[in-house]
């Protein structure tokens, strides 16, 4: 079933997608694909806040410098400066929309809202809504999007692929509805805001993580992927093997939280002068090493010294959630473990979110703008969502096409498929084996032999799945797994090709930086052939 006449099609309804919809809808019609599961995506769970230069005692150069240090030599400095300098305007826009950021009532406050500090930042520059910033921003944006007459929200369709034409441009998306029926949404411009690829791993900080589906959809049209090897593991996810994932915000360490091993010994000050406020790659590796040294499956994050009043004030969500799971964080330390959190790599884009495929943009975690380099600094992610959604929106308004063209190139036809359904247990088994291999061999520390094993195993899994893709009817589960497997293979290929240790990619077989100027990795789907 073909649904034409869409102007701007946005796939994904997290912070990036919602902000873009509001920006573009002032002068263009917007169709927003936003399945209900988007309410449980990464944006919803962003606790800490948004980094921006807001205090009179802070400045752009300092924020740029901190970001470059965290990115370990691989940031695009122009992208960093662009993002940082657009930060205050992006925050002003959220304030105008009514996001309830936490005020700072203290007489000595130099800014009306409370600013906290997180790892890698040399100043307090994180504006937040208590410890549930992502939720507060999402709820505010959703209310405005729902009320906007030029935005059509489709919550009953899930994109499983993009539509390309024979000239190499993107012309929309192929989707499935709840009954498994195929729909083709043709659009003048398509924007991916589908999130990252943490779902390639077994343990993540989100209950419903993306597995890089949007990245692979674009790659199928020939889009370039960049820096896939840099998968960030958040140092402090609540350790609870029997419960759902729950992030313990970086801001907990920013307000004085101390990391202890299972013997109650603090270990970060001996490893880095910034101690618990070192960049995430350093802290995650330190925790991993301490767990191996002590033979434990977690470490402890201690904030008891802050006192119950301060804990309840600064971290009400974390305090309540831990209490619901039988843990009083005012009286006992929090068991934590690193978990897959954020993809620093993704679709290569310019400062307006344009990919290497005409009429296809990407914003948010699905994109690789050059801001994060080899390691994302805390709270720069929501900043990136806001800034690039706004710059992408400006470009889509400035460069709006005249409408559907009679001279448009023919669409690339959909490949034939069968009508039987793939066995869900078979698909679940393949996905679990993929996640186990990625977690065992392509995680915080990588070794050459492990990467070789991962490459062989993932290739075998793709060969196992390929006949089902050809013979079975398309489903969301099947399409997602097919996309995830190939992205996992490209991630391993990128990791094998980087013969150095830099940021989030740490390989003891090639420690330290390679000589010369650091270069991003670039791959295409065709590299798997």
Automatic annotation (TrEMBL):
Residue ranges occupied by any FAD-dependent oxidoreductase 2 FAD-binding domain in the UniProt entry: 7-382
Signal peptide: none
Sections of the chain in a coiled coil: 444-471
Classification via InterPro entries: FAD-dep_OxRdtase_2_FAD-bd, FAD/NAD-bd_sf, Fum_R/Succ_DH_flav-like_C_sf, Fum_Rdtase/Succ_DH_flav-like_C, NadB, Succ_DH/fumarate_Rdtase_cat_sf
Pathway: Cofactor biosynthesis; NAD(+) biosynthesis; iminoaspartate from L-aspartate (oxidase route): step 1/1
UniProt cofactor(s): FAD
Stored Pfam families: FAD_binding_2, Succ_DH_flav_C
Domain Fumarate reductase/succinate dehydrogenase flavoprotein-like C-terminal: 431-507
Record flagged with keyword Coiled coil: yes
Alphabetic keyword roster: Coiled coil, FAD, Flavoprotein, Oxidoreductase, Pyridine nucleotide biosynthesis
Record's keyword annotation contains Oxidoreductase: yes
Gene3D superfamilies: FAD/NAD(P)-binding domain, Fumarate reductase/succinate dehydrogenase flavoprotein-like, C-terminal domain, Succinate dehydrogenase/fumarate reductase flavoprotein, catalytic domain
Region of interest: Disordered: 502-529
EC assignment: 1.4.3.16
One GO molecular-function entry: L-aspartate oxidase activity
UniProt superkingdom: Bacteria
Catalytic EC class: oxidoreductase
Subcellular locations according to the entry: Cytoplasm
UniProt function note: Catalyzes the oxidation of L-aspartate to iminoaspartate.
Similarity comment: Belongs to the FAD-dependent oxidoreductase 2 family. NadB subfamily.
Designated name of the protein: L-aspartate oxidase
UniProt organism field: Halomonas alkalicola
Record lineage: Bacteria, Pseudomonadati, Pseudomonadota, Gammaproteobacteria, Oceanospirillales
């Amino acid at each position: 079933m073909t649904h034409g006449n869409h102007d701007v099609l946005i796939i994904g309804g997290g912070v990036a997608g919602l902000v873009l919809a509001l920006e573009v809808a002032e002068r263009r019609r917007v169709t927003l694909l936003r399945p209900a599961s988007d309410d449980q995506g990464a944006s919803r769970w962003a606790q800490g806040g948004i980094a921006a230069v807001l205090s009179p005692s802070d400045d752009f150069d300092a924020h740029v410098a901190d970001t470059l240090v965290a990115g370990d030599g691989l940031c695009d400095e122009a992208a960093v400066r662009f993002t940082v300098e657009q930060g205050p305007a992006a925050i002003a826009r959220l304030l105008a929309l009514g996001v309830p950021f936490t005020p700072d009532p203290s007489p000595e406050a130099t800014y009306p809202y409370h600013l906290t500090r997180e790892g890698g930042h040399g100043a307090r520059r994180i504006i937040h809504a208590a410890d549930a910033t992502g939720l507060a921003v999402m709820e505010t944006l959703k209310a405005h999007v729902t009320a906007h007459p030029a935005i059509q929200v489709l919550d009953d369709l899930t994109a499983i692929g993009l539509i390309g034409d024979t000239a190499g441009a993107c012309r929309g998306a192929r989707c499935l509805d709840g009954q498994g029926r195929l729909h083709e949404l043709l659009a003048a411009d398509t924007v991916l805001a589908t999130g990252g690829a943490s779902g390639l791993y077994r343990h993540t900080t989100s209950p419903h993580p993306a597995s890089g589906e949007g990245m692979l959809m674009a790659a199928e049209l020939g889009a370039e992927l960049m820096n896939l090897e840099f998968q960030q593991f958040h140092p402090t996810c609540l350790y609870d093997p029997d419960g759902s994932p729950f992030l313990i915000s970086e801001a907990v360490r920013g307000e004085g939280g101390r990391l202890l091993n299972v013997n109650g010994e603090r270990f970060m000050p001996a490893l880095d002068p910034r101690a618990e406020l070192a960049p995430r790659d350093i802290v995650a590796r330190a925790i991993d090493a301490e767990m191996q040294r002590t033979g434990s499956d977690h470490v402890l994050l201690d904030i008891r010294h802050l006192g119950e009043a301060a804990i309840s004030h600064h971290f009400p969500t974390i305090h309540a959630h831990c209490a619901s799971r039988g843990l009083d964080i005012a009286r006992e330390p929090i068991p934590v473990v690193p978990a897959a959190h954020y993809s620093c790599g993704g679709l290569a884009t310019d400062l307006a979110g344009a990919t290497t495929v005409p009429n296809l943009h990407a914003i948010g975690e699905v994109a690789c703008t050059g801001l994060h380099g080899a390691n994302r600094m805390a709270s720069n992610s929501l900043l990136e969502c806001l800034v690039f959604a706004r710059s992408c929106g400006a470009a889509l308004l400035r460069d709006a096409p005249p409408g559907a063209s009679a001279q448009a190139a023919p669409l690339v036809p959909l490949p034939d498929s069968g009508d039987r359904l793939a066995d869900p247990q078979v698909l679940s088994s393949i996905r679990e084996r993929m996640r186990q291999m990625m977690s065992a061999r392509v995680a915080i520390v990588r070794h050459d032999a492990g990467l070789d094993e991962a490459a062989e195993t993932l290739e075998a899994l793709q060969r196992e799945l390929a006949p089902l893709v050809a013979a079975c009817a398309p489903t969301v589960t099947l399409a997602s797994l097919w996309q995830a497997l190939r992205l996992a293979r490209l991630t391993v290929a990128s990791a094998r090709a980087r013969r150095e240790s830099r940021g989030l990619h740490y390989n003891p077989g090639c420690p330290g930086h390679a000589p010369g100027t650091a270069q991003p990795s670039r791959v295409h789907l065709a590299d798997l052939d």
